[in-house]
Design a protein that fits this description.
The protein is an alpha/beta fold and 266 residues long. The chain is 21% helix and 23% strand. It has a single domain, classed as Ribonuclease Z/Hydroxyacylglutathione hydrolase-like (Metallo-beta-lactamase, Chain A), CATH 3.60.15.10. The strands form two sheets. Strands 6-5-4-3-2-1-14 form a seven-stranded mixed β-sheet. Bound molecules: zinc ion (2 copies).
Length: 266
């Protein structure tokens, strides 16, 4: 099976939670016979079925921080990751690994925690070996709560997911050596935000990553980017700007339900 990303939601933030104008189900990352569900926000369980994906294949759950657009459907996704919950004697089957923060875990009932094989409390700088794949926690500057991004080091490529963050001193350096970046880009052009990046802010940081990224996927678009009250859908113009102002070979914008082979980026 080719490694692949499935976009269960290209939206982020409160407006999309409420309206589902863009879905908020997070991303499936399929790699080496594994299926990771990263940030299963509201509707994740609906989208995984709508886009003909199989929730029982998920064996890695990652919630990067305790915001509802990243966390909401986690328990449903854990239950949906197995066809049977327990045997005849109500012994619950254990399956899967959850990587998340302590704050998130406080909101996961013991009932669901006990369905998991492994729970890994994670923060920036931590590493974890999952089925032979090294996963590294990256720094975020986002809100008061704990959070992290992740880098997956595969045999023939590496991919980073920024999660929600601002840019900061060291943002580019921590991604150096990564081939593909999945960037949460909430806002277009120079519409700044205290908690997120906009296109104009992030471009210089993308250009500072060495060696140059091979691929970039932009996602987690907020309501300023595209919604019923934004003057236009800014995603195409941001894609054009990023292609124009960086040397990244392949840049793709996420759309709800899109399935993107990793080989497209390499
Ligand atoms: Zn978010
Ligand atoms: Zn957030």
């Amino acid at each position: 099976m080719d490694d692949e990303l499935v976009i269960l939601g290209s939206g982020g933030g409160r407006h999309h939670i409420r309206t589902q104008y863009r879905a908020t189900g997070g991303i499936l990352f399929k790699f080496k016979e594994n299926q990771a569900h990263i940030d299963p926000g509201p509707g994740a369980i609906v989208r995984i079925n709508q886009y003909n994906e199989d929730p029982t294949k998920t064996n890695l759950f990652i919630v990067t921080h305790m915001h509802i657009d990243h966390f909401n459907d986690l328990c449903a996704i854990i239950e949906a990751s197995r066809e049977q919950l327990h045997d005849r004697n109500y012994n619950y089957f254990k399956k899967g690994t959850l990587i998340t923060t302590e704050e998130v875990l406080d909101f996961v009932p013991k009932y669901h925690q006990n369905m998991l094989e492994t729970i890994v409390l994670f923060k920036s700088g931590d590493t974890y070996n999952f089925e032979g794949t090294k996963i590294i926690g990256t720094k975020v500057i986002h809100s008061q709560i704990e959070g992290f991004g992740v880098i997956f080091k595969l045999d023939n490529y590496s991919i980073a997911f920024t999660s929600d963050t601002k840019v900061f001193e060291g943002f580019s350096e921590q991604i150096s050596g990564v081939d593909i970046l999945v960037l949460n880009l909430l806002r277009p052009d120079s519409i700044t935000c205290r908690r997120h990046v906009c296109t104009d802010e992030v471009i210089p940081y993308l250009n500072k990553i060495t060696p140059q990224l091979k691929g970039l996927l932009i996602t987690h678009f907020g309501s300023y980017m595209d919604s019923s009250f934004s003057p236009t859908n800014y995603v195409p113009s941001q894609l054009a700007k990023l292609r124009d102002e960086t040397n990244i070979k392949t840049i793709i914008a996420a759309e709800d339900g899109s399935k993107i082979k990793i080989s497209n980026f390499l």
